[in-house]
Design a protein that fits this description.
The chain is mainly beta and 271 residues long. The protein is built from four helices and 15 strands. It has two domains: 35-140, Hepatocyte Growth Factor, CATH 3.50.4; 152-264, Mannose-Binding Protein A, Chain A. Mean pLDDT is 85; it is low at 1-16 and 18-30.
């Protein structure tokens, strides 16, 4: 039996208009998709990450087994095994185990294997050895907690020019789902402008710079009515995010320096 540590996942009168109220209810009453759990058992502490698996054969060794439970058990008894992906095979109870020595050592966050989106799979990432020794138990609590979507969202302390974040900011946030917006609105301060990676070129439409693949805003789950663009169409526009606790707005302008909202990826998930 495994223990679990849950972490971070008639119109109104004199209030919000009916449409705004419905959007508010949609944003905050839908249960967010939780793709990661922090777990522990008699062998140690680890993350269980749903819907992701290692996909670079240089990172793992593969074995097929009769039951998906065998993958984690085999990894637990091999000291060099730091993580394992479990890929269920269609049409059977069999599974493909992908064993990895990464990260080595466990505390080397930068050595965690890259995880690709992989339906019908999950990944175990070990983070600490179980022991009655207080030191080991304490080490397990030092791992950075993550949100239900597997990422963390951190604002910079100081303001920066739009598009010029500090070096530690792996990625300026891009927001494409309501689940992600729900998380951000719970963690980001109200009525505070945050520069985000949303841009509109001249005579074009707002687009997220989502890694190598640009994603037009109107192809996301976000409300098109929440765009307020203060720049003429023939000029480019750089957006920042602001919310009041119940509604979000993306405001376009010339790129005023603001605090930057960074999206950190401690689990090394494909984006």
């Amino acid at each position: 039996m495994m223990g679990r540590r849950r972490g971070k996942v008639g119109g109104p009168q004199g209030g919000l208009p009916l449409l705004s109220l419905l959007l508010f209810l949609l944003l905050f009453t839908t249960v967010a998709a939780k793709i990661v759990e922090s777990l522990w058992d008699g062998f140690g502490y680890y993350y269980k990450i749903y819907g992701y698996a290692m996909n670079n054969s240089a990172d793992y060794q593969m074995m097929q087994v009769n039951n998906s439970c065998e993958c984690r058990r085999r990894c637990q008894v091999v000291p060099e095994c730091s993580s394992v992906s479990v890929v269920t095979l269609a049409g059977s109870n069999r599974a493909e185990c992908r064993f990895s020595t990464k990260p080595t050592p466990l505390s080397n966050v930068n050595d965690r294997p890259k995880l690709s989106f992989f339906p019908a799979s999950f990944h175990f990432l070990f983070t600490g050895i179980y022991s009655n020794n207080y030191y080991y138990n304490y080490l397990s609590t030092l791992w950075k907690s993550v949100e239900d979507d597997g990422f963390t969202y951190t604002p910079t302390t100081f303001t920066f020019s739009w598009g010029s974040p500090p070096s530690w900011c792996n990625k300026v946030v891009t927001i494409t789902t309501l689940d992600q917006m729900r998380i951000i609105m719970k963690t980001a301060s109200k009525n505070t402008p945050y520069n985000v990676d949303l841009y509109r070129g001249p005579n074009s439409q707002p687009t997220w710079n989502h890694q190598e693949a640009a994603i037009p805003y109107n192809q996301t789950e976000l409300d098109p009515a929440r765009i307020v663009d203060n720049m003429p169409l023939h000029l480019s526009s750089k957006f920042y995010l602001q919310h009041n606790g119940s509604q979000y707005t993306f405001i376009g302008g010339s790129g005023t320096p603001y605090t930057v909202l960074c999206q950190l990826n401690p689990l090394n998930l494909a984006q």
